[in-house]
Amino acid sequence: MPAAAGIGGPDRGTGKAPAAAEAAGSRVPSRESGRDRALLVEVDLGGGEAAARLAELKDLAASAGAEVADIVTARRARPDPALFAGRGKVDEIAERRVATDADLVIFDHALSGMQQRNLERALQCRVVDRTSLILDIFAQRAQSAEGKLQVELAQLQHLSTRLVRGWTHLERQTGGIGLRGPGETQLETDRRLIGTRVKMLKTRLARIASQRETQRRARRRASVRNVALVGYTNAGKSTLFNRLTGASSYTADQLFATLDTTLRRVVLAGAQTIVLSDTVGFVRDLPHDLIAAFRATLKEAVDADLLLHVVDNAHPGRDQQIEAVDAVLSEIGADQVPQILVRNKCDDGACEPGVERDEYGKIRAVRLSALTGAGVPELRAALVERFPRPGDRAATA
């Protein structure tokens, strides 16, 4: 999958750049760093958590490789149908963009195709919405062949909804001697080509999904217990995965550091055979195209015997992050899978490592630090208690 020229640049699946951005006179940054300078826009629509959303937007922009030039905030009762932020605020954004020499404007919201086109004309630069930003990060992070296919499928599905009058070359193709054809517009050609590519990607992903299902059936026949790590992005899932399995998966203090699902066996004395899977991190308002494209990967969580829901216990918005993860789990059909809440990052004195049980004595949460290893033995003991070897003491119901 070819690399893009920058955030919101040429679509990796098609290799084409939206002509609306070209017409708006998008500039390629000539700075030594080569990084796009981004003006961030956060519009508070009354849902609360504006500060937390803005902090996450900064992290997303940094993860995408952008340099934050400035931030514009606004409050509205509802989005403007044409410009999302309203004419007055858009004029302010345009002035701020010129003053800060920003290359693009990033909105922390999902924009309609019409809103994005109108904003690009008004701001004379590229406009990237939250969905496109997350897709761009995923495209940078995908390493496996399956991950690249999934990201390209999500990008094309997102692009297919934005073709209407979004390109400057949509005039009907002119005929001529030897050139007259059915009169197909460029728009129809693009839509047809995208549709063909999407069909091919779905076929290849279905083949991979079939292979994964065969592997899952083999594990079930061998009485292997499947445990999946789920959680908000940057909660520390990969660090915990490495701590439990001895693997060396990539870890970093950034959003969506890893995308590709990794499976490793966990050897625990007194426990049944356990295979642990590290899945992609979730985020609030995760694009539906991504959920659909990664459905085969996320099926590891659906078919799991137990979910370890990893939470950044030091994050001020952890409760909202838990709700966002639960919403995605419900959407993919994994909300009925048993869970143990893993309160990670208990290494700053805010909490003591240990185990929390409900009124029936069943383990519902484990407090630990995946970085230092404190509390990890308690999590291992919880897994042994949940999946004891036949002949050992029964698991707590």
CATH architecture of the domain at 223-386: 3-Layer(aba) Sandwich
**Helix-and-strand structural type:** alpha/beta
Radius of gyration (CA) equals: 24 Å
Per CATH, the class of the domain at 223-386 reads Alpha Beta
Helix content: 25-40%
Q: Supply the CATH superfamily name of the domain at 223-386.
A: P-loop containing nucleotide triphosphate hydrolases
Q: How would you sum up the global shape?
A: globular
Strand content: 15-25%
CATH topology of the domain at 223-386: Rossmann fold
Contiguous uncertain segments of 5+ residues: 1-5, 10-30, 165-176
- Mean of residue pLDDT values: 80
Question: How would you explain this protein's 3D organization?
Answer:
It is built from 12 helices and 11 strands. It has 397 residues and is an alpha/beta fold. Among the domains are: 98 residues, GTPase HflX, N-terminal domain (Rossmann fold, 3-Layer(aba) Sandwich); 164 residues, P-loop containing nucleotide triphosphate hydrolases (Rossmann fold), CATH 3.40.50.300. The chain has a 7-stranded mixed beta sheet with strand order 6-7-5-8-9-11-10, sandwiched between helices. The relative contact order is 0.10.
